[in-house]
């Protein structure tokens, strides 16, 4: 049983199925049916790659592995079972002889007022799709704005975190918005403004200083404001207050401060190291020889640096997946166990266009050469879709990008504090990252007006189909009781972006708005609360909700947790 199909889980399943050759039953539990190649996610947000290019089908590439769609809710170590919830809310249980925990990581949250409500992370495909639409919308609204201050706020984008993800998001984002304003000119003298913040002393603090200088120089030449030693003190709907006292008006806050392990690992009650499950060099959990862990969820001893643990990076997760597969097979009598050891082959950072920073085999490169090495590395590392990715790169080089809003992912569908960033959230109960609220945070009742406070029974939300049926029955009953009633004129829902509506204009969020993923624990048939009347029914398809199902309680993690 393998929990999670990220870099570690996918590699474990692939290597184990190849070594077993049909002699073992391998089950892979994952919320989605694809493996996501995270390093290319900034190119999806920038409109270079189509979303499916960075996804690899699990069923097609792992033919001898049984795929079970669902999220692990809990693990019974004594009973050797994994409890999960499938995409439609049904619960199930899977038994195992050997367990590989590769649940990955989620956004790292800090106790900063307003961040959980107004910022968005960058860990999953839904977040990339949302950011692409959001940036496009803000530039288009800025181009049409009459007020200079509104225009400036809409075309200002703040990225927090100058690690791999934040640096690449800012680099690609500046190119993307510059291309947009060439077709939608802003007011005279204005251009899109990207600000990259980090409390560290330099960009890419985890990499070689020469790579850091290359990335910093490229960003500044492109027009990105790089502010090291500065972060966000408070976030509001109108902008962000920085730690240096400056208030930056903006409608866009991208949170890339790093990651922390999935809370599933901590729920096991086993020895932990800053939220990561402690394992030995063979990736086995001490005292539980049938349980293995790898990737971001595991604290793997770094044999080259005694007393330390390997960082939470895709490179380590990919290599640990192979070691985990070999050691699982060895525990079943096929082969011998081996400890995890690694040797760095270099790093690559894509800075957009033909620019990149790389040091393959320790040789520092920049400019066009680094760009060629970076794209070659990604093509070689991807387990599929290489031709399609290369084709998109070629088309992007000769054709202008399509800057359109598809509106597939709404703001409330990608909350920062979700424990499942790979899924677009649906209205109703959802799995949230467990952490504390920060100083100055609102209370639970204030931040979640649409949900009951602790200790109260949760409100039952009917499905969209059930609501429509119940509403039709209610109208029929009302017609029988009032045969002489005048027909009701129904107003057409207003197709308005939430960002353009005032709080007084914002409609109540549709509780049962269809989303890309059904809500968990969907209740059975329950009469809808909507009754006929002069106001539009809440569950009718049509207008976009003015806001999400309610902001959520902020979560917190030790700032030392995770690694960007």
From TrEMBL:
<feature type="domain" description="FAD/NAD(P)-binding">
    <location>
        <begin position="1"/>
        <end position="321"/>
    </location>
</feature>
<dbReference type="InterPro" id="IPR036188">
    <property type="entry name" value="FAD/NAD-bd_sf"/>
</dbReference>
<dbReference type="GO" id="GO:0003954">
    <property type="term" value="F:NADH dehydrogenase activity"/>
</dbReference>
<feature type="region of interest" description="Disordered">
    <location>
        <begin position="473"/>
        <end position="564"/>
    </location>
</feature>
<keyword id="KW-0520">NAD</keyword>
<feature type="compositionally biased region" description="Basic and acidic residues">
    <location>
        <begin position="473"/>
        <end position="488"/>
    </location>
</feature>
<dbReference type="InterPro" id="IPR045024">
    <property type="entry name" value="NDH-2"/>
</dbReference>
<keyword id="KW-0560">Oxidoreductase</keyword>
<feature type="region of interest" description="Disordered">
    <location>
        <begin position="420"/>
        <end position="460"/>
    </location>
</feature>
<dbReference type="Pfam" id="PF07992">
    <property type="entry name" value="Pyr_redox_2"/>
</dbReference>
<dbReference type="InterPro" id="IPR023753">
    <property type="entry name" value="FAD/NAD-binding_dom"/>
</dbReference>
<comment type="similarity">
    <text>Belongs to the NADH dehydrogenase family.</text>
</comment>
<protein>
    <submittedName>
        <fullName>Dehydrogenase</fullName>
    </submittedName>
</protein>
<keyword id="KW-0274">FAD</keyword>
<keyword id="KW-0285">Flavoprotein</keyword>
């Amino acid at each position: 049983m393998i929990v999670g199909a990220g870099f570690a889980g996918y590699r474990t399943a692939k290597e184990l199925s190849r070594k077993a050759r049909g002699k073992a039953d391998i089950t892979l539990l994952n919320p989605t049916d694809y493996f996501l190649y995270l390093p290319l996610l900034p190119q999806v947000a920038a409109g270079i790659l189509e979303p499916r290019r960075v996804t690899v089908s699990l069923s097609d590439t792992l033919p001898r592995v049984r795929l079970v769609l669902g999220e692990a809710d809990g693990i019974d170590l004594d009973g050797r079972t994994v409890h999960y919830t499938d995409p439609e809310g049904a619960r199930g249980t899977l038994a195992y002889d050997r367990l590989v925990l590769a649940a990955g990581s989620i956004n790292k949250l800090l106790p900063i007022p307003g961040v959980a409500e107004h910022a968005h992370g960058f860990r999953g495909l839904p977040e990339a799709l949302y950011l692409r639409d959001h940036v496009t919308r803000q530039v288009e609204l800025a181009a049409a704005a009459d007020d200079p201050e509104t225009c400036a706020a809409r075309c200002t984008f703040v990225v927090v975190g100058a690690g791999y993800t934040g640096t690449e998001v800012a680099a690609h984002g500046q190119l993307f918005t510059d291309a947009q304003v060439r077709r939608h000119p802003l007011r005279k003298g204005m251009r899109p403004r990207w600000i990259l913040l980090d409390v560290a002393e330099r960009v890419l603090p985890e990499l070689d200083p020469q790579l850091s200088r290359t990335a910093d120089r490229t960003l500044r030449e492109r027009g990105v404001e790089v502010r090291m030693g500065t972060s966000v003190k408070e976030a509001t709907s109108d902008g962000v207050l920085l730690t240096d006292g400056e208030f930056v008006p903006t409608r866009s806050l991208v949170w890339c401060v790093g990651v922390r392990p999935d809370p599933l690992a901590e729920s096991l009650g086993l020895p932990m190291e800053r939220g990561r499950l402690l394992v030995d060099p063979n990736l086995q959990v001490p005292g539980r020889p049938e349980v293995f862990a790898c990737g971001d969820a595991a604290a793997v001893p770094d044999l080259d640096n005694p007393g330390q643990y390997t960082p939470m990076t895709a490179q380590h997760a990919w290599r640990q997946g192979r070691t985990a597969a070999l050691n699982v097979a060895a525990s079943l009598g096929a082969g011998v166990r081996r400890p995890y050891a690694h040797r760095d082959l270099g790093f690559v950072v894509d800075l957009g266009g033909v620019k990149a920073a790389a040091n393959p085999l320790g040789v520092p490169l920049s400019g066009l050469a680094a760009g060629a090495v970076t794209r070659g590395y990604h093509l070689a590392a991807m387990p599929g879709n290489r031709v399609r990715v290369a084709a998109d790169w070629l088309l992007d080089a000769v054709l202008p990008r399509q800057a359109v809003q598809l509106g597939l992912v709404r703001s409330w569908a990608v909350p920062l504090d979700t424990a499942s960033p790979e899924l677009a959230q649906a209205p109703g109960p959802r799995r949230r990252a467990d952490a504390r609220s920060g100083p100055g945070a609102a209370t639970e009742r204030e931040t979640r007006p649409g949900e009951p406070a602790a200790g109260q029974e949760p409100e039952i939300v009917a499905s969209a189909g059930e609501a429509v049926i119940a509403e039709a029955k209610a109208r029929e009953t009302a017609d029988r009781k009032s045969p002489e009633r005048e027909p009701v004129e129904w107003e057409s829902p207003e197709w308005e972006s939430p960002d353009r509506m005032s709080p007084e204009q914002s409609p109540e969020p549709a509780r049962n708005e269809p989303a890309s993923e059904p809500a968990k624990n969907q209740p059975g048939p329950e009469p809808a609360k909507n009754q006929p009347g002069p106001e539009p029914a809440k569950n009718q398809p049509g207008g976009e909700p003015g806001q999400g199902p309610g902001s959520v309680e902020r979560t917190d993690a030790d700032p030392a947790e995770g690694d960007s």
